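Troubleshooting: if your tokenizer reports a length mismatch, compare your output against this known-good record of 196 residues.
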Amino acid sequence: MPPDLLSQGRTRQKQRTRNALVETAQRLVGEGQSPTVEAAAEAAGISRTTAYRYFKNQAELLAAAIPEIGRASLLSEGAPSSSEERLDLVVAHITRLLIQREGQYRTILRLSLDPATPRESLVLRQGRAIGWIEDALSPLRSSLPRKEFRRLVLSVRSAIGIEALVWLVDVGGLSRQEAVRTMQWSARALLKGALA
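Known-good structure output:
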């Protein structure tokens, strides 16, 4: 979106229009869709031309609706240097997102398991958490062989994603808070095991 679009003339109306597109995109994702700009515009009752003034493509729209998908790292600039502390921060952030948007993530998981769903339509299932975990564990890159590092990253991801939350809550019978604590414990245990 042009940076000055929201700052020139009728700013409140423009902000309401943008918010309507973002909220509609969030709702559509929660319903199991990966909405295009056109689909969000239609569902929000906004013209396609107007919608494209705010979002030039689907990636921009989804990045606004689910801001974390555009982030390369979940760590702030002053992040600790300890891989344990860094992993704790990233796992806490990921599990918080899972709880906040559980309905959306469950829908995305369901769609990803359906063989009829084209992979390219699963914009929100592109392995971003793997990059976040790699970033958290980056201090270990020089001390762990590449294959071991990759195994650790994938093991942590398998222990803290929506798949783990669904299993812990639906099958394991844990509360969501207990499930989050279990995922955090699992991530730490995997890291300790890799370092042992």
